[in-house]
Design a protein that fits this description.
single chain, 173 residues, alpha+beta, 7-stranded mixed sheet, 4 helices
Length: 173
């Protein structure tokens, strides 16, 4: 699984993409289907929703409007209707930690990354993201992302330290 925070452009707001989902073969958003609870698509949905509730403090949700805007085989994308990029970044990092994968940031979000981290009290560093090995590619469409990785469009966040007291989310039962 490859998780990234991006600003896809057009009328779309900042989005948390989960790509190269395992257990997603044959998924078609236009047909009724049941996704196994242990498949990556289900795990991502659980992590997104659980993190939004866990980070809410005394509110109902941290981010009032976040929804699954992008859904096709191998991809689940959650769009945040918020310009509180500090909250978005913190949420995305808690989701990535729950899924036990690193968070990648597309260059479209670069202008907001360091300000958001500072405002949220997050310490982090980053390295250039690496291409996902062919043997690890689950969905053919991921090659589009691999070409973007080859062009240096992503960084991987490393040495992330969230503020003390930031809740964690456990989605594995």
């Amino acid at each position: 699984m490859f998780i990234s925070l991006e600003l896809p452009g057009g009328d779309k707001h900042v989005t948390l993409f989960a790509l190269n989902l395992e257990g997603d073969e044959g998924f078609d958003q236009c047909r009724p289907s049941v996704t196994a609870w242990y498949a990556d698509r289900s795990r991502v949905g659980m992590a997104v929703n659980a993190a939004n509730r866990a980070l809410a403090g005394d509110q109902h949700k941290l981010i009032s409007t976040i929804f699954n805007q992008f859904a096709w085989e191998g991809t689940s994308g959650w769009e945040y209707w918020s310009h509180d990029f500090d909250k978005v970044l913190k949420h995305a990092l808690v989701v990535a930690a729950a899924l036990e994968v690193p968070l990648h940031v597309h260059k479209s979000f670069d202008a907001h990354l360091l300000d958001a981290a500072e405002k949220a009290g997050i310490k982090l560093d980053f390295v250039g993201a690496k291409r996902v090995a062919q043997k690890d590619v689950k969905v053919r469409e991921f090659e589009y992302t691999n070409r973007r990785l080859d062009r240096g469009e992503y960084i991987e966040l490393v040495n992330v330290v969230l503020p003390e007291g930031t809740p964690t989310v456990d989605i594995d039962w």
